[in-house]
Specification:
With 548 residues, the protein is of the alpha+beta class. Among the domains are: 123 residues, no CATH class; 185 residues, Rossmann fold (3-Layer(aba) Sandwich), CATH 3.40.50; 64 residues, no CATH class. It has 22 helices and 17 strands. Strands 2-3-1-9-8-10 form a six-stranded antiparallel β-sheet, with helices on one face. It starts with 8 loop residues before the first strand and ends with a helix. This is Asparagine synthetase domain-containing protein. InterPro entries: Ntn_hydrolases_N, Rossmann-like_a/b/a_fold.
């Protein structure tokens, strides 16, 4: 089995067109993607041998992102808890299923009596026999929140199957089903030491199952160093690498170096050049399929990893599973007396680092924000009233629909990513901790106590104030701004930019924009980059459809 990248998967349910599935497979990976199953109502193509589970008439063919596979599953729920997505073959019945962690993607669309699916959006789009439509709800969410909430994508005709769900094709229609998410049923009965021990043991189990030397990226934060500790303890940390976060200094790298030294790891530091920034920006946008607003700081790491023949650790989901403290979960988001008010507070808290809609003209702001809020609340409604409403909602929105595109897309397109916190056991240990144990980042402390207390006490971004930066930030350098200005000049929102944004773009001595303009600039630019890439397969994009 190849493990050089995230799985490339496609197929169909229903009375499918085999030639179209072949076109999707070719767009995914050329000769690497081949048919591994085919019958009259289902077909599956992959770039590797499928994982196999079940027995007799109830069996499955699967694939996995971010975790080593543990054999022995007997049904789709068992396979999903182990991190797999797949195709269920149950007698004559066929259905797709996602994993419990939602890390791997299944995108799907319907055409001419069949359901077509893929692990990437673009092959579905490029193989479509019809023009497609912009999804203004998705784009409102991408601009306002940085990611599309719910199951939406930039294309109205393409959806993403939610975690812990199945999808069938019956009587000419797609049917999604979702039993209660296991993480929402966790009983909060683990003390701090018990939770810390369970979290550390889960990390050790995943590292042991990887069983090979692994490259460990190190930032100044706690997630990457916790993973480095687990791999180093097992003798499987090959070396460490840091990448500049492009925030004006070497704050992160300076915090990472003592950790690498304490673990006996060589540390390589990567930086980008200003002249490469526009190309890096477009590369990042393409690899995340235009679904996550950010700048291009991680692209040098992505390129570096593509040259390595090693698995790569990734801290996916650790922030929400261990950090129930200060960053997003305020008193209002955790108030159980009014679940809907808590959901609205979480929507506002997620946007605390910038109100991107303010980069648009006043008459566009309210419709865009209303659409984004509605999509967010659509997900939040499932968890309103649950004891851990805020972290469950946060995970199912920001973590699954935004952050996940880095280990599976930006980094995972080119390397084999290992994300130990995506393990069902790790999540259940987190959600089973008592309220007192999880309070104010307590699970970070407890996990480090059980794994590597000395490293846990070293200065990190959580405990050290960031000093003023003295270096030029590439995201607002001349080449970067020129590229943004060119993108913003043509596209759906070109005529409704806020005067403050156009003034900043045109100023000879512009300085740095405030957080609202910065995120707005990135979000609008992402939309225009997407529009330029796909305008040949899109129906006319009319801004009046956004504003009503």
């Amino acid at each position: 089995m190849t493990e050089l990248r995230s799985p490339l998967v496609c197929g169909a349910l229903g009375r499918y067109d085999r030639d179209r599935v072949g076109r999707v497979a070719a767009a995914l990976g050329g000769d690497d993607v081949r048919f591994v199953h085919e019958d009259s109502t289902s077909v599956l193509a992959m770039d590797r041998e499928p994982l196999r589970w079940g027995r007799r008439r109830h069996r499955g063919l699967g694939w996995i992102d971010g975790l080593p596979w543990r054999a022995g599953a007997i049904d789709w729920q068992d396979a999903a808890r182990r991190g797999a997505c797949g195709l269920v073959l149950d007698g004559r019945h066929r259905r797709l299923h996602t994993s419990v962690n939602g890390l791997g993607s299944i995108y799907w669309t319907v055409d001419d009596g069949a359901l077509y699916f893929s692990s990437r959006i673009e092959p579905l789009v490029r193989s479509s026999p019809r023009l497609l439509t912009i999804d203004w709800d998705a784009w409102s969410s991408i601009i306002a929140l940085r990611y599309p909430a719910s199951d939406r994508t930039p294309f109205a005709e393409v959806r993403r199957l939610q975690p812990w769900s199945t999808l069938t094709w019956e009587r000419g229609r797609a049917h999604r089903a979702a039993p209660t998410w296991p993480w929402a049923e966790a009983e909060r009965n683990l003390s701090g030491p018990e939770a810390g021990a369970a979290l550390a043991q889960s990390l050790r189990d995943t590292v042991s199952a990887v069983g090979r030397p692994t490259l460990v990226p190190l930032s100044g934060g706690r997630d990457s160093r916790m993973l480095a500790c687990a791999f180093a303890e097992a003798g499987l940390a090959a070396r460490a690498v840091s990448v500049s976060d492009d925030e004006g200094g070497d704050f992160e790298e300076a915090l990472a170096r003592p950790v690498a030294d304490a673990l006996g790891l060589d540390l390589e530091v990567l930086r980008a050049a200003a002249g490469n920034y526009p190309r890096n920006w477009e590369t990042r946008a393409r690899l995340v399929e235009h679904q996550f607003v950010d700048h291009a700081w991680l692209v040098p790491l992505s390129r570096h990893l593509a040259r390595q023949d090693l698995p790569v650790s990734d801290g996916f989901a650790m922030d929400v599973l261990l950090g129930r403290g200060k960053r997003f979960f305020t008193a209002e988001t955790l108030d159980r007396s009014d679940p809907r008010r808590a959901s609205l507070a979480l929507f506002d808290s997620v946007r605390r680092f910038g109100h991107a809609h303010l980069a648009l003209a006043e008459d566009v702001r309210a419709p865009l924000l209303d659409r984004a809020r509605g999509l967010f609340l659509e997900v939040a409604a499932e968890f309103e009233g649950a004891p851990q409403q805020a972290p469950l909602t946060f995970y199912r929105t920001r973590t699954v629909r935004g952050v996940a595109c880095y280990p599976t897309g930006l980094l995972g397109r080119r390397s084999h990513i290992v994300a130990p916190a995506a393990s069902h056991d790790f999540a259940m240990a987190s959600f089973s901790a008592t309220e007192a144990a999880a309070h104010d980042d307590g699970l970070y402390a407890r996990a480090f106590e059980a794994l590597a207390p000395e490293i846990g006490r070293m200065p990190s971004t959580a405990t050290s104030p960031r000093p003023p930066g003295g270096r030029l930030r590439l995201w607002c350098s001349g080449p970067a701004v020129a590229a943004h200005r060119e993108r913003l000049a043509e596209g759906p929102l070109a005529g409704v930019l806020a005067p403050e944004l156009t003034t900043w773009l045109d100023a000879p001595d512009r300085g740095e924009p405030g957080p609202d303009l910065r995120l707005g600039l990135e979000g609008i630019s992402l939309l225009h980059s997407w529009w330029a890439r796909y305008r040949d397969v899109l129906r006319e994009v009319d801004l009046r459809d956004l504003t009503g």
